[in-house]
Design brief:
By secondary structure, the protein is of the alpha+beta class. The protein is globular.
Amino acid sequence: MAYQAGGQRSVPRPVPDSLEAREAQAYLLDYAALLESVSFPSVVLDHGWDVVLANSAFRKLFGGVGPHPTAMPGDNFLRFVLFHPDAATVLGDHESSWCLPMLAHFAAAVERHAQDRGLLSIRRDIAQDPIMDAAYRHGLPHWLRTVGPGAARHDGAVRPLVHPDPRWGATDCRVVDETPDTLRDLGYTRMTLVLREAGRPSESPRRHRRSRRAVAGHLSVVPSPGR
């Protein structure tokens, strides 16, 4: 497992033995050292949002979330955003700033990798969650029509979060995609959350934090019946 507790360095998943695979594994081991030198939360993900590498700043950001059988942030970041009941306690404005953009990227990934088992498993879990299924089938298209497809873009987006370290607390981060060619060739992407400095003006509206499960049976972005 790539995500490890206790401040340890991430270890990439083993790959089948071959010269090319060994070279890729050696690159990932060195990249893990580079990732650990970054002070901001940074993570390497595969096409299905499984975590390949994560640095200690990433682990610290999500260190306070409770256990979950399938949606831990260090296992699969998409599952965490969609299904973990504690996601909204870290990811501010959870519904529109995190959940819906991730659903938009998930929908695009399903089109590109229609037979991917991991993505199909996530789709089944979405279908079994009435609130999330309504967001995916009705809320997402409505939201994209309202705000435009550019709102789903990750790179450059400024999104609110709540850091467990009181020196940061409720702040914003800029999501930066900084994927080198070698990682991209392996099918991976790197995402870094650049935390905003204390006292810096916010670019995103502050909204009351609430758990997704606290929404009374209906997401605000899902059109009410008859709309």
